[in-house]
Design brief:
The protein has a three-stranded antiparallel β-sheet with strand order 2-1-5, with helices on one face. The protein has a two-stranded antiparallel ribbon with strand order 3-4. The protein has one helix and five strands; from the N terminus they run E-E-H-E-E-E. The longest helix is centred in the middle third of the chain and has 14 residues. InterPro entries: DUF3107.
Amino acid sequence: MEVRIGIIQSPREISFESDQAADEVRQAVESALAEGKQPLVSFTDAKGKQYLVPTAAIAYVELGGDSGRKVGFIN
């Protein structure tokens, strides 16, 4: 599934593929924003790379559908 996170006052967004279900990612973001006590939200992409995003800087989170088989070169 593709995850895109918009950051406040930044022209770029964070975009990565995740093996987590959309409901898991949404629940992690909602709980971090609702409590207001978590300074960071952690995401892990399909390759194992971790992303730590400050909860105060999240403008939006876009959750894409499950991606199908990709065609082309893989890095």
